[in-house]
Amino acid sequence: MKKQLETILSNSDNSFSLMYNPRLNYTIRIFSLFVLITLKVHSQKINESYRIHPTKTDQIINIDGVLEEKIWNNAEVANNFFMILPTDGKQASQESEVKILYDENNIYFGVVFFNNSVQGDYTVESLKRDFSFGKNDNLLISIDPFNNLTTGFSFGLNAYGAQWDGTMYNGGKVDLNWDSKWVSEISFDKDKWTCEISIPLKSIRYKEGVKEWGINFGRLDLKAGEKSSWAPVPRQFPSVSLAHTGVLVWDSSPPKQGRNISIIPYSLSNISKTNDYKTKSNKIGGDIKVSVSSALNLDFTINPNFSQAEVDQQVTNLDRFELFYPERRQFFLENADLFANFGYKTLRPFFSRRIGLGVPINAGLRLSGNINEKWRIGLMDIQTQNIDRIGLPKQNFGVFTIQKRVFERSSIGLILINKESFFDEKNKIISDSNYTKYNRNIGVEYNYGSANNLWNGKAFFLNTYSSNQIKNDHSFASHLEYNSTNWKARIQQEYVGENFNAEVGYVPRKGYYKFNSSLGYLFYKNDSNIVSYGPNFSRTYFFDQSYNRTDLLDQFSYVINFANRSKLNVVFIKNYINLLQDFDPLRSNVGSLIKGSEHEWTSFGFEFTSKPQNNFTYKINGLIGGYYQEGKRRSLSAELGYRFQPYFSINSIINYNSINLESPWNKSDFWLIGSKLDITLTNKLFFSSLYQYNKQFDLWNFNSRFQWRYKPASDLFLVFNSNEVMIPEEIKSWSINLKLNYWLNLN
Questions:
Q1: Cβ proximity of 449 and 410 under 8 Å
Q2: Rounded Cα–Cα distance for residues 704 and 297 (Å)
Q3: What is the DSSP letter of 243?
């Protein structure tokens, strides 16, 4: 033990120390310490005194963006919004009002945003659904039906009526990939803009008998440079933070949802060609949604197709490890946090993109949601087809997860993952060497959030089992973070064993110990062009299993946030890397740096984001400094956008990397160019076109997508894709997909 500790100290320039026991002892000690730190006594909800009662109505509410029905005059008003930015705690200068009605089937919101202090043009990107929050004058509504301060739903509109919806998790994060069936309209003039919204109660999962929901309303007004909310939210948190919601008080229990079954069939026609091989196909399938209870949903998918999903944005890959791309397929998205947020972004036991990409899915089912105000459950099972030409067998992917709320905003969760392969004689010989018969993971996780929302943390333990695994191994990680108005601090540690094998997860690196700490401070100014500014320092260590230092990353940054919502960040970075494997620093197949070689360099960088109110917006970042093998790297990247609001916008990405190394690489230039055109004729009719070129892989990509939302949650898609890649081999392909789906409720 003494020798191990001395080794760590000697490999970290005596600047890092930690009481450390080998593996399991270490795991138990850290977990125990974490739990002791985060144990808190019960305290009252922060904004308990902000309460609003919805008014019941039997009148027909015409959703036209004009609050003309007399019942709106009788509804209780949520007003006197509080400023979040540029200065929190003050009354907002722009006045806002929200009223709520309900009947047996829907909940209605009537919202009026006045321009009493600052008038001018409204700012929106387009009429596209799920707009970028910071680039639009908008309304956001956060709803916490279980009043658990961690999970819920968010709905919103921009000033021209584009819809925004998503599921909420971790107290303030929103997954915008979730879509629901609701209707809205807006009207506006120079004095105000008005929203009228109808959300079916069947679209919101809630427990019958619960009479108090968490709720808050947020407003972003870019012409006034002001973000505000009804129940006050400190400036360091998002306006939809569930820890700071007020209370929606039902005079009687919310209406029972009754039977809630939806059938969403689709038909697809496809023409595609890869090199000289051309195919045509027609396909049908669909989804079935069944509400087991008002808060628990069962989804079936049969012969699914995800051809309408947006394509991934290309990147220049100069990293040693696999890159992460987000999930975009609808079936995997509702309550996705139950499955996908176990662990950290670079240490996840379940990553749904491991399922069904390039392999047809026969069918799948998913049970997910809340059992009651304390328990959540998730169950997923998916069956994929076999592909004989590569020896890929039929595979089944099963996931079970359960989560229990503890304390005010904390939870304990369990996850079980099973990947099973079913071999037949045709693929057994090939498959025996390429695919495991089974791969299983089990994990337990504790998520911590303090009642005042200043502290958050996590601790989890994972173990893997595989049919070809010589030794089962585990992973353990934890962090604790403090986020006040001025201070932000975080400590984090990770351990991943050499034999840790999560085949359905995303674990790009194995066999390491990682330690990270960061500390930042923000100074605030009132009545100034600058809202806040301040430094941040972070240090990250990696050690191998013998406690030898392999990586050290120091990063010092200084950020300035301006009142017009533009932002400047400058950064100094120092890298040290001891290569664990041979590595090609350009991924060009020209040569490799040898395992065990040491590399050290420094870099300077900056990033500036322009104010979003202008029709022309941009973000520019640059980097200059060293690289592997005493090389030099210069990088410049720009994101440029111009809009003719709200109907037309064009955005471009230009990324340039110049790297100078010794032979055999010499000097290399990498260009990455992308351009996206969005045309939104209405908030139901969308056309987008994306063009990308990546010189690193000599890849050309073109995607064009037309979408007509002819009814809520029902769409017609026409999608064209074209790809041409030369590295590592020449592949040319194109496809045309025509897809029609229809959302049918069986009431």
A1: yes
A2: 33
A3: G
Answer for the pair 675, 655: CB distance below 8 angstroms, yes or no.
no
> pLDDT of 502-557, one tens digit each?
999 999 999 999 999 999 999 998 878 999 999 999 999 999 988 999 999 999 99
Residues 6+ apart with CB under 8 A from 91: 80, 81, 82, 83
* All domains in the chain, ordered by first residue: 2-38 (no CATH), 51-249 (2.60.40.1190), 322-508 (no CATH)
**Burial class of residue 662, CB neighbours in 10 A (0-12, 13-18, 19+):** exposed
Average pLDDT over residues 185-197: 95
Average pLDDT over residues 86-108: 94
Highest mean pLDDT among 18-32, 86-100, 118-132: 86-100
**At 432, phi and psi to the nearest 5?**
-55, -35
First to last CA, the chain: 67
Q: Give the separation between CA 351 and CA 340, rounded to whole angstroms.
A: 6
Contact 504, 397 (CB under 8 A): yes
The predicted-structure confidence for 98-112, as pLDDT tens digits, reads as follows 999 999 999 999 999
Q: What angle do CA 46, 93, 614 make, to 5 degrees?
A: 110
Length of the chain: 747
Quote the CA–CA distance of 705 and 693 in Å, as a whole number.
Answer: 18
- Residues 591-601 have a mean pLDDT of 94
Say which DSSP state 503 is in.
T
Q: Which residues pair with 726 in a beta bridge?
A: none
Residue 3 has pLDDT above 60, yes or no: no
Q: Specify the pTM.
A: 0.84
Angle at 294 between CA 288 and CA 299, to 5 degrees: 20
How far, in Å, CA of 398 to CA of 424, rounded? Answer: 21
